[in-house]
Amino acid sequence: MEVSRRTVLAGMAAVPAASLLDTRSTAVADVPEVKLSWLEGKPTTAAVTTWGTPWPKGAVPADQTFALKAADGSAVPVQSWPTAYWPDGSLKWSAHAIAVDAPAESYTLGPGTAAAPPQPVTVKNEKTYVDVDTGVIKTRIRKSGPELISHIWRGDVLIARKGQLVNLKQDKIAEDEEGGSVRERYESDITRVTVEQSGPVRAVVRIEGRHKSKKGKTWLPFSVRLYFVAGAENVRMVHTFVYDRDGQQDYIAGLGVRFRVPMRDAAYDRHVRFVGEGHGMVSEAVKGITGLRRDPGATVRAAQIAGTKLPDPATWDQRVTTRLKWIPEWGDYTLSQLNADGFTVKKRTKQGYGWVSVDQGGRASGLGYVGGVSGGFAFGLRDFWQRHPTQLDIRGAFTEEAEVTVWLWSPDAGAMDTRFYHDGMGEDTYPEQLDALEITYEDYEPKFGTPYGIARTSELTFWALAATPTAARLGDLADQVRTPPQLINPVDQLISTRVFGGLVSPVDRSVPAKKAIEDHLDFLFDFYRGQVESRHWYGFWDYGDIMHTFDEDRLVWRYDVGGYAWDNSELSPDLWLWYSFLRSGRADIFRFAEAMTRHTGEVDVYHLGQWAGLGTRHGVQHWADSAKQQRISTAIYRRFYYYLTADERTGDLLSELVDSDQTFLVLDPLRKIRTEPYEPDPHALAIGLGTDWSGLAAAWLTEWERQGPKADVAHSKLLGTMETIGAMPNGFVTGGGLYDLDTGRFAPVTAKTVSVSHLSAMFGQVEICAEIIDLVDMPAFEAAWLQYCRLFNATREEQTAECGAYFGNLILRQGHSRLTAYAAVRLDRDDLAARAWKEFYTGDGYGPNLPWASEEVKSTLNPTQAAKWVSTNTTALYGLAAIQTLALVGDQIVNP
């Protein structure tokens, strides 16, 4: 049976959240089974995946063990761990990992004892190193020095060694400065190694450090996680670095991961491979014996093309055998992807000699290989062309040891230019900056447009192979680099468990009005996906974001006009995409949302410095705008990806935000528009009840349900702020309050105050309130939120009668129709349901009578499709209003 929410939460208020693990209820119903499927269909080769599964409240004990079965009923080894709990102590989210040689079409997850893998991954944590053995490969990880991975063996064969991070730092932008620029080499320097998981199916080792020069200078903090799975021949690396300069000096001129690869075979048995577009590839031998004036023999040539060991040279045509020394040995290869639509491959015999062009193409897969018939090393970088400029280098393949570098930022591309894009134009005072805001929509402030503290995460995979792989095998590896296999839950499981507050329902075209809305939602997603491609929204810092507003005169997005350029999560496209995935299970939506989460959580948010925990408002550069706010960094944008994939890096981002209430001591979000003196006081911090509080609440809720190290504090602050908001005479309509960092509560408010913004609920507040109202039985808080939901789109008379004043001329009414719908359901009021649909159809967003189509634009550099009416940037709000209103009051739909 389900434990009473009211009873449990009343008792929890007096229990530290950290102790909840010891007080969990075991009175649960039978644990249900869940059928899982592959996001993009069954992989064609061995697959590794980690995923999260949600569970209904009260259904699964906290200590539940799980078993996994393939479609034919056979047991599949699985490793499981909890990632979130319901307030009653039952399991809310569990995470699972598998590695399978022959993937099944589907799997069933349920209660039971997990099958043991035939070759479990094991971890030996020694004083100076960590050894991880998958049963196929063994890897040694150093705890200090420059080498993250000192050795990778396959059996007794050393496949790669001296794996380290490499960086080139440049002192100036060469084309803008007199004199030559200087590049200085930096390498990884390890400061900490942590074993986070140790098997039996999955092991995770986290490595932290900074990049260090030979002179002892350091910069660019990094965090690298290495993933190992039972029976696997590969190591997955998730690499994160934080940019710790102001962007006006010290430029990244190269950033990569480097290994040395022993070369044991004869030069004609050594091979280089690069997979380009699809499964097409550059397939070369270090010493080629095809195309020669003399023919060694068909069998010999076929073996070299296949990458297998050549017959004894004594069996060849001796006119070739006696002249092998005259055939050049090509030791150096480079594949450069300097833009989204073009890569080049070149080679040379060795350093100091000329490069020869090999080939070129459009979009490389990011996979390469070097080695021979006795073993070799494959290496891949995900989103290779999307994150340009990237590069794959092989050096010295004719020597006893080749060097492989996977460049996240290509040294051939020039230095990464992180300088602010204008000189301030005399905007020295707040009045001047506010006036400029009126024309360019950019909130400028000197020294605020800095990238100091932003980050970027990349995903790499390295294979220790027994021999040069076949073309088909390399093609399969390339596919998995491009699109890693991902198991997902059925839509019904994601929705019925209500883990995200019950604001989503499955796609429904059962009546014409619903069909029209669903068609419009599909159109908007397809349009933006198409815009990413046709407008080339790619690049190292840019991939994953979308633009804010279209310029109908130039027929381009306003990429160079202040706050109209990059979107930086403005009006919550992240939420629109994730809710769209939850209700549809569509792979294309998942991958779009995944790229956005990787971008917005890293690039648009500060991870170091005084603004750590805050994000940057939309602008020409992702870090340009001076508005540093919770509404961009909010945890609610990242929670979906974390819970669906159990991605540890995303978990780091969520943990970073728990103490972000401290940022209000160093930066006042309203500093430019205050009319009365204000100095931040730790016992009386001015915090808005909209975008500010919702961001804090999302972080606190996530830490609490994850049972993180600060769960007790997060729990206290969440409940404390909820209680004190509920006690305000006008609740959320009050607009803000004075917050005490020590108590985690707002100061009492006695007067009825009205301060309502059209943006307050548009950055996750609707979603976070729905979740916590489902979790916490606090009638006063729910009443305060329902009051806000009822009154935002209400008449002047209704607002004044209840709150004492008119809310003002508000906009984004269509986006707020979902608030009316929420109130209709919670209060069981048909009049509000009808009003919600009227607001949705007749609000100030997208109407049903729009031309829901795009047209070809021919006057741009690259003719493309455009729908100019989309550019008002209310797409996300329309999508959320449609999705959530359908979920809440879809059965009471009113036809347009």
TrEMBL record:
Domain PcRGLX/YetA-like N-terminal RIFT barrel residue range list: 33-109
PcRGLX/YetA-like C-terminal alpha/alpha toroid domain segment(s): 484-892
PcRGLX/YetA-like central beta-sandwich domain sequence ranges: 121-478
TM region positions: none
Pfam families: PcRGLX_1st, PcRGLX_2nd, PcRGLX_3rd
InterPro entries with a match to the protein in the record: PcRGLX/YetA-like, PcRGLX/YetA_2nd, PcRGLX/YetA_3rd, PcRGLX_1st, TAT_signal
PANTHER family assigned: CONCANAVALIN A-LIKE LECTIN/GLUCANASE (PTHR40081), TAT PATHWAY SIGNAL SEQUENCE DOMAIN PROTEIN (PTHR40081:SF1)
Protein name: Tat pathway signal sequence domain protein
